[in-house]
Write a structure and sequence with these properties.
single chain, 202 residues, mainly alpha, two-stranded antiparallel sheet, 2 strands, 2% strand
Length: 202
């Protein structure tokens, strides 16, 4: 009787051991997966941007300073340093804010960094970086006068800001910029339904 009871307890214990679920990668919390995905995306894009920056700047120095060295002046160097500085500063900020950090002992991700695919200001900053790449290629082949194209980005930003301000100041406009009449208030709609006079807006 005693031996049967012991055997029953051992069988029950082994059953509970085998029924304990094991933790797999599929059971990881969604937040942890999102952190890993963002960290991998940021790392890949920052590395790609770093390689592109080295490539385009090396191309500039090879063509302008070596191949076309006769036209490489102090003015050329000053323009290069001044007009490529914004893009380099943006990349530095991206590295500080979006480069993932990991625990050196465990290898776990401590911080995934800011999303480099975010809308708004981040998009504009990427436009500056990529437009600088294009200008570096043109300047390397054509000369310093190609730097005038660099003004397209700030000019577009000023124009976009002005049109937005003008639209807010002038009232509601449609996609083509045509002013639209303001929607009637709830009070005026009720008065019209009751047979009252239509309220005139000035």
């Amino acid at each position: 009787m005693h031996l049967a009871t012991v055997h029953s307890l051992e069988s029950s214990a082994s059953h509970h051991k085998t029924s304990i679920p094991t933790t797999t990668k599929a059971n990881l919390p969604s937040t942890q997966k999102a952190t890993k995905t963002l960290a991998a995306s940021n790392t890949a894009r920052l590395n790609q941007t770093l390689y592109l920056t080295l490539t385009f700047h090396t191309l500039f120095w090879l063509l302008r300073a070596l191949l076309f060295h006769s036209t490489f002046t102090r003015h050329t160097l000053l323009l290069y340093l001044t007009l490529t500085s914004p893009a380099l500063l943006i990349q530095f900020l991206f590295e500080r804010q979006s480069r993932p950090t990991t625990n050196t002992s465990t290898g776990a991700i401590q911080r995934a960094g800011e999303d480099l695919d975010a809308k708004g200001l981040t998009e504009y900053m990427w436009d500056v970086v990529y437009w600088t790449y294009g200008n570096l290629v043109l300047v390397s082949l054509v000369g310093d006068r190609a730097w005038w194209l660099y003004g397209v980005v700030p000019a577009y930003s000023v124009w976009s800001a002005w049109t937005t301000y003008a639209g807010l100041r002038g009232g509601i406009t449609d996609a083509a910029g045509v002013p639209q009449p303001e929607a009637a208030s709830k009070r005026s709609v009720k008065m019209e339904k009751r047979g009252g006079q239509k309220v005139a807006y000035r």
